[in-house]
Write a structure and sequence with these properties.
It is a single chain. Helices cover about 30% and strands about 20% of the residues. By secondary structure, the protein is of the alpha/beta class. The chain folds into 3 domains: about 180 residues, no CATH class; about 375 residues, Glycosidases (TIM Barrel), CATH 3.20.20; about 90 residues, Sandwich (Immunoglobulin-like), CATH 2.60.40. It has a 9-stranded parallel sheet with strand order 19-18-17-16-12-9-8-21-20. Strands 25-24-27-28 form a 4-stranded antiparallel sheet. Helix 2 packs parallel to helix 7, helix 12 runs parallel beside helix 14 and helix 18 runs parallel beside helix 19.
């Protein structure tokens, strides 16, 4: 993910160069509140740059964990500067150099002292209340900026969410405002129940996932298995992973994209490539368990789809892989090529070799064949950012046809890998979704768009991915060689040159919808969007989700947030615990991913013997391996219930029971749910409702099954033939 890693490294550099790029705070009072909120939130949600061990607070400064005394010694100059700063009615403004985490801490300590020793006058409060927050960047890597707020009231709400120091500015006109205590039991981790809204705001079909980043251990794991096979160290990694999955479920997500192969390394026992160093600290060392198998098992237990996130060609993100004993080196070194073009300095497997293309497909299919995954998604790395000049001269001399341009040949190499992988998946496990997380701007060349019979999005400027990385997702959509497209639209809806509004509509309608309409057999390439949780606050993310739903015309919208840590813990903005806030605003109820209904699979029989035993709902599942469970009021008809996300209770995987609330006023329905995402006819308990009788529950003549020679099951009701989804048949 070039875009977000680049920004993360840029911000890291800012943190280590504190004298560069001063940031302006609109007023000292607002600086005070912002610092309190950020420090307390960081401390309370255990961000990686503040930690508590054995009752001692440690601060992450550069690459070191420092105690309070050590941090103070490292920041004497800034501490002295702060101690000489006071509030006044006329002098509210100050500039700060980019602060490191220890500076945040000392600023916070000073603010606490000010609160105790200096009474703010009414005039000072009035002045503060009329100011707006300045946007500024936190120095912690991969964090973004605070948004503007209209008043100190909104700022106070941010502080309250962050469990700040206990005070906020009350509502009302400036002259009427006063400081008020916030009760300590007001915990942002336990938000009030969401307000009931129009169910259309929470569609039943919507892909909701995060990029689960293992490269540089950005999301996971934060600890090593230093002694391979060590039970407690393995348990720590597993516990961290399941905590993240629990948070995904809490946020009403339904999938995650697990980065199983970031740099030709493996988070599973691969016969071709080396174990990732992010598991043990040393590349090639077996941690003593299979992280990918564990992730799949635990994800499915929670009803989450697991999509493999892979980088097809990248071997190193910098430098070269030269260890001749490394498993990846032994398998693929003959195709390695080195780049150092400013935008990328590392090694890739050269797609120009047909053998290299087959090798990549072989490695990826090994995962698909051996793990019960639900999808596979490629990142935006194909040929490297910065472009290719002479790096692939050897393969070009062997394989480039005469008269073919370098760009067309390189794109054909990538196309070949995509087609080969898709065809192989369809032959083995057609329910495994194949997706591409392409760069958000496909091309800036009008002639390229014209050659496909489409126009370019208006007003968009930036990198030409078609020319630079030789990535051509429109070709794959046009020919139906992917199941979903998830371009990385890491820009704001307010951006002028890279408008989220414009790009979202263009990718969805001009690309996915336009070319899906031309595919045979009702095939659809779904449109999901990769979104930057690390860059934006709640309001912007909500606006983007609304765009995804507004412009989608292929059967179901979708969001994949980068990265999981920022979406779950803290994105560095004024939206702590983003996954909870989004669930309150837009992901109010669970949802199912859009179904791939155009692919042919045997129909599933309805469940039988549905019953309640104590607090457990049980059934006999027949030939299904996963099920959707609905819980709905006695006065709601079954058809209405199973078409409403509000009543989707959970997805059950690999078992035929689930725990249910103790209630006598609700009914339950269980539908077989195949691996393509299709639901089949519900079975209901209890069979008779006390408050409603509807035709779909009380047919006027008996229902009987008709099994065709092809194994499909149809239903005859009232003289009409239906499939198990209730669709009429001739």
């Amino acid at each position: 993910m070039k875009t977000h890693l680049f920004l993360a490294f840029s911000l890291m550099s800012a943190a280590l160069s504190a004298a560069v790029n001063p940031y302006n705070w609109t007023s000292k009072g607002e600086m005070c509140l912002a610092l309190q909120a950020d420090f307390n939130h960081a401390y309370n949600t255990n961000l990686q740059w503040v930690k508590l061990e054995n009752s001692t607070i440690y601060f992450h400064v550069g690459d070191n964990w420092l105690t309070e005394t050590q941090a103070q010694g490292a920041e004497t100059t800034v501490a002295n500067f702060i101690q000489n700063t006071t509030f006044s009615e006329t002098n509210n403004f100050m500039n700060m150099v980019s602060p490191s985490p220890s500076r945040w801490y000392w600023l916070f300590q000073y603010i606490q002292t000010v609160r105790e020793e200096q009474e703010l006058t009414e005039g000072m409060r009035d002045n503060i209340a009329r100011k707006e927050f300045s946007a500024f960047f936190l120095s912690s890597p991969a964090h973004g900026s605070w948004p503007k707020s209209s008043s100190y009231v909104t700022a106070g709400q941010y502080a309250q969410y962050a469990n700040a120091w206990g005070y906020t500015y009350a509502s009302g006109t400036p002259k009427e405002q006063k400081w008020e205590d916030i009760p300590q039991e007001d915990n942002p981790d336990k938000p009030n129940p969401p307000v009931v809204v129009d169910p259309s705001l929470t569609p039943k079909r919507e892909f909701r996932a995060t990029w689960f980043t293992t490269h540089y251990a950005i999301d996971w794991p934060s600890t090593y298995v230093k002694s391979p096979g060590n039970a407690s160290q393995i348990a720590a990694q597993k516990k961290e992973l399941t905590d993240i999955l629990d948070a995904l479920v809490e946020g009403n997500m339904n999938a995650f994209c697990f980065q199983a192969r970031p740099t030709a390394d493996a988070f599973y026992p691969s016969p071709y490539e080396a174990w990732s160093k992010n598991l043990t600290g040393t590349r090639g060392v077996n941690p003593g368990y299979d992280p990918l198998a564990f992730a799949v098992e635990e994800g499915h237990k929670r009803g989450l789809e697991v999509h493999l996130w892979v980088n097809p060609y990248r071997v190193t993100a910098s430098g070269s892989l030269t260890d001749k004993n490394d498993a990846t080196y032994k398998s693929a070194h003959q195709w390695f090529i080195k780049y150092d073009n400013g935008s990328f300095s590392g090694t890739i497997i050269d797609p120009g070799y047909p053998e290299a293309q087959r090798y990549v497909v072989k490695v990826l299919m090994h995962m698909i064949n051996n793990y019960d995954v639900d999808g596979i998604i490629m990142d935006d790395y194909f040929y490297p950012y910065g472009g290719t000049t002479t790096e692939d001269a050897a393969s070009k001399a062997l394989y480039k046809p005469a008269g073919m341009s370098d760009g067309d040949w390189r794109r054909s190499n990538v196309d070949s890998t995509m087609r080969m992988l898709y065809d192989t998946i369809q032959a083995v496990k057609p329910w495994v979704r194949f997706g591409i997380g392409a760069f958000g701007i496909r091309t800036t060349q009008k002639k390229v768009a014209t050659s496909y019979g489409i126009t370019l999005p208006t007003g968009i400027t930036g990198l030409d991915d078609y020319a630079v990385q030789c990535c051509n997702p429109i070709e794959w959509v046009k020919d139906g060689y992917i199941d979903y497209l998830a371009p990385q639209l890491y820009w704001a809806t307010t951006s002028s040159g890279q408008s989220y509004h414009t790009l979202c509509q263009w990718w969805s309608q001009t690309v996915c919808k336009h070319f899906s309409d031309q595919l045979p057999g009702n095939q659809v390439v779904d449109f999901f969007v990769s979104q930057a949780a690390y860059r934006f606050d709640l309001d912007e993310i909500v606006e983007q989700i609304d765009d995804n739903r507004r412009y989608n015309q292929t059967g179901g919208a979708g969001s994949i947030f980068y990265n999981t840590h920022c979406y779950m813990k803290n994105n560095g903005l004024a939206t702590p615990l983003m996954h909870k806030r989004v669930a309150e605003k837009r992901f109010i109820y669970p949802a199912l991913p859009p179904a791939m209904s155009w692919k042919s699979v045997p129909a599933l029989s309805p469940v039988t013997n549905l019953r309640v035993e104590g607090s457990t709902l049980k059934w006999d599942g027949g030939n299904a391996e996963r099920f959707t469970v609905y819980m709905f009021p006695d006065t709601t008809g079954v058809e209405n219930a199973i078409n409403n996300a509000q009543y989707l209770y959970k997805v059950v995987w690999g078992t035929t029971s689930c725990t249910i609330p103790s209630t006598t006023s609700h009914r339950f329905a269980v539908c077989p749910y195949d691996r393509l995402g299709n639901e089949y006819a519900p079975t209901v308990w209890p069979t008779e409702a006390a408050g409603i009788v509807s035709s779909d529950e009380q047919p006027s003549q008996p229902v009987r099954k008709v099994i065709t020679s092809g194994g499909q099951i149809f239903i005859i009701r009232d003289g009409h033939v239906y499939d198990l989804m209730g669709r009429g048949r001739p």
